[in-house]
Structures are given as C-alpha cells and as structure tokens.
Amino acid sequence: MSEKFGKRLADAVAARGPLCAGIDPHPGLIEAWGLPVDPSGLERFSLGATEILAAETAIIKPQSAFFEAFGAPGIAVLERVIETAQAAGALVLLDVKRGDIGSTMGAYTAAYVAGQTALTADAITVSPYLGFGSLKPAIDTARANGRGVFVLARTSNPEAHALQNALLPNGKTVAQGIVDAAAECNEGASPYGDVGVVVGATIGAGELDLGALNGPVLAPGFGTQGATADDLRKLFGDDLKGVLAASSRDILKYGPDPAKLRDAVRRTRDSLRPLG
What we know:
alpha/beta, 12 helices
C-alpha cells in the first residue's frame, strides 16, 4: 500500500465527514437489540451495525476488548467486521491500546499493521506508557504499510488526570510530551502525518497545545459522554483539521432497526460536517 495513511484519512474525511463511528458490542447493547449475549448475537449485532455505519462514515472504530471477551469466536467476528467495513469504503481504526517493548511490540505490530493477518486495520490505538520510544516498531511498520497509529495522550477518564497531567522535568505535562513526540514524527508530512493522538473531547480547554501536531486527533467523548460539536470547537479551536469526533453507543442505541440506525449515523455525521 503506497499511499500514506494521513493522505487516505484526509481524503476519507473530505468525502464523508469527520465522524469516527464506534462498533462497541457491549453486552447491554446486544441485549437491547433483542439478541443473545453469545457469539451468534455478537455476530448479528456487529455485522448489522458495521454494514450501516461503514457505508456512511469515513472511519469505523471497533473496540477489540468486546470481541476478545468471546474468545476465538469473537476474534473471528472482529475479522469479519474489519473486512466488511473496508469493503464498504471506510477506514478501520482498531481500538486495541497495545503497548510493550521489543519482540512483544513486534508481535502486536505483526498482528495489526503489518498486513500479515485478517486483523490488519488501517490504524490502531497504542499506549505510550512504557515510553514513547517503545512505539517505534509500530510506527515504523505502520508507515511502511500505509497505515497509522493513534497514541493515547490525554484521556477524559478521571483516573488519568494525575498521570497524564503530571509535570516532566522540562515543565511540560506528560500528555504534552506525548503530543510533542507525535509532532516530531509528523514533521513535514502533508496533508498531515500518520501518527495521531487520542485526546478526550471532555477535557479542559487549553490543557494541550496541538498546534505543531500536524496529525489527526481522535476525540472520544462526543455524544453519550456529553461533548457537543460546539465543545469540540472550544477545545480544539477553529481549525479542526484532522479532528475525528468518536461516537459509538449514542448511535448504536438506535438499532437494530436499519432505518433508525442509518438516520442516527447520518444525523451525527451531518452535525459534524462544518468542523471538517
């Protein structure tokens, strides 16, 4: 795959808007769809949602943990979700939050971004908390294969505050240090680089300086967790190039009726178009 992820993402967002639609087969949602919480229910829920959402959005984000909870049958469903979404023209950001060192990180890389398995996605989420340098195998392999990574920087869960806003010796927060390291990876890229960051849409305005990032920002917290399109503008400024608003359960709750689910994703997507 010769075209860079940053370019592929920019093209997808230009065509379909900046919504990142999550596929989160939470047991409660599966039950709400009138399905059994077993591999058959997982498959019907996940593929039914993917067929609708992937046709309407730029990027689909399956949450790997909910599939892993079903063991091998769940992983098989996840493989089909990835295949179905890509066939519909959506990019797939697999939410796995992997992070390790050496050969272990290499194995994660082989699984998700090297193009060697059916779990290969267009991008994955990764954790930098063994040191940003530990992500180098994933970043290098993703880039070589036209794929990307999104690095956890400033998440909105309360437990994250003490760690991610802790001050480094240079006076910057840990989260800002991660953003700055990602920016170095993206320097000179156009329209933007392949290394994105994850920044919760519900954090405080002004916590982070994203001006030099030159890469995409995944902003979970849009919808159910309370963030609105106006909140995104307040948080990230008027120039929202590369900001992907992530929403999952706020859309998925409208299933299993295909028409209601399609209407919900279209409403959400269209509410964000002025931001793209």
